Amino acid sequence: MPATEMTPELGGWKEAYTPATDSASELALAYLSLPYGNGSEHFQQPGYVQNVQRFAAEFDFVARHLPARGLLLDVGADGTWSTAQLARRGLTCIALDITDHLTLSRLFQTACPPYALINVDMHEPVFRDGAFDAITAFNAMHHSKRLDALAAHLARSLTPGGVLGFVEPYVQNAQQEAAFGAPQSALGINENVHTVERWAEAFAAAGLTLEAYSLSDSFNAVYRKESVTDRTSGVLVDYYDAMLSVAPDSVAMQPAVAREFAVTVASVGRAAWASRGPTPVRLSYHVSRITATGMEMTAFDNARTLLPSFVCPGAPETFNVAVTLNEPGTYEIEFDLVHEARCWFAERGGGTAAVRVIVTSPPLLPTNDTPGRSSLCS
Questions:
Q1: Number of domains in the chain
Q2: Which residues touch 267 (CB under 8 Å, ≥6 apart)?
Q3: Per-residue confidence in pLDDT tens, the chain, 378 aa
Q4: What does the pLDDT read at residue 100?
Q5: Residues 177, 59 share a domain
Q6: Same domain assignment for residues 250 and 118
Q7: I need a labelling partner for 60 at 20 to 30 A (CA). Which of 69, 195, 213, 291 fits?
Q8: How many C-beta atoms surround the C-beta of residue 318 within 10 A?
Q9: What is the CATH number of the domain that holds 347?
Q10: Running DSSP on this structure, what letter comes out for residue 236?
Q11: Could you tell me if 352 and 249 are in contact, meaning their C-beta atoms sit under 8 angstroms apart?
């Protein structure tokens, strides 16, 4: 057994598991609850199940875009928790992996519809062209040293109109790429991460069209073979297609008193946004003072509001954003999304929402003084 298998800090199993283990044991029940978790102690410390649980929202994102029925190949299925979940959803599934972790499927198949297993390298052309309605890979393809060949092989295996959905790590530059997975690589495990652009390039070259995607701790993407869409397959080209609205659109405020605004955020492209990962998306605002000569920016970079797991196309989310202004005057507050470490959405053509605010002078406090009389006690 490789050293990483028993090293929780490297994503390995916290303790050895064998298919003969009682299916009602605490460890077995933890596995059966993947990727969502069941609150047991196994999810409270580093290890395999905790590592899988981190990507529950990403798994759901991909699963939402899969067909309701059909034949699915789960590539790099490992212990087959993902295959089991997809089989529960009505798909006819085949789990593929080169390791002996497939034996863990005996546990899942006690509680799930049956699915087939194949112990083979994911690059091997063991299936006919167009065999699958869907193919998935959850943190599996970065173990390939031949990304272009793998992408072409998976595309060949999809039927026209078929879907490829995956969750894979990504980096932003060559320095991060070189450092990725160093402990695992030192133990002889293939760890090959890429930029989002490089991932997308490989699948576009294989003839697949990007249909939906998001960035979090991973690059989460759904591609379609010979999709009917005529939009470009380039990644991030519509990432900033946002529509924002705010209520109320004008208001009076007191100095130094917080006021909440309801800001609705909608993705009108293919991207889903999340406040996770190395380049999270968050909601913020700019403040400009309106004067007789025009607008003067007074606070460009302000507090961030976190997004939920994902803000998906066609599913707007509304956030209450508290704003405090200290000086009397007339202001414009412009709400915008920010792709941290990259840009503000407005810089790439994304929509914003603005509100006009009048900050009034505080009223004079009443006194007990009467004109002509001293306020001092006699």
A1: 2
A2: 241, 242, 273, 311, 312, 313, 314
A3: 444 444 544 445 545 555 445 677 888 889 999 999 999 998 998 888 899 999 999 999 999 999 999 999 999 999 899 999 999 999 999 999 998 888 888 888 888 899 999 999 999 999 999 999 999 999 999 999 999 999 999 999 999 999 999 999 999 887 877 776 555 555 556 678 899 999 999 999 999 999 999 999 999 999 999 754 445 557 788 999 999 999 998 899 999 999 999 999 999 999 999 999 989 999 999 999 999 888 999 999 999 999 988 999 999 999 999 999 999 999 999 999 999 989 999 999 999 999 999 999 876 555 555 444 433 333
A4: 81
A5: yes
A6: no
A7: 195
A8: 12
A9: 2.60.40.10
A10: T
A11: no
Range of the domain at 191: 55-225
Q: Decide if 279 is inside a domain.
A: yes
Q: Are residues 252 and 188 in the same domain?
A: no
Q: Are residues 320 and 189 in the same domain?
A: no
Q: Are residues 201 and 104 in the same domain?
A: yes
Could you tell me what percent of the chain has a pLDDT over 70? 85
DSSP string over 92-130: EEEEEESSGGGGGHHHHTTTS---EEEES-TTS--S-TT
77 lies in the same domain as 201: yes
Distance of CA 1 to the CA centre of its chain: 32
CATH no. for residue 198? 3.40.50.150
Closest CA to 298 of 322, 323, 325: 325
pLDDT per residue over 150-165, tens digit each?
A: 999 999 999 999 999 9
Match 């202001």 to its residue by tokens. Answer: 331
Contact 277, 337 (CB under 8 A): no
- Specify if 42 maps to a domain: no
The answer as to whether 7 is a domain residue is: no
Q: What b/e string do you get for 29-54 counting C-beta neighbours within 10 Å, with b at 16 or more?
A: bbbbbbbebeeeebbeeebbbbbbbb
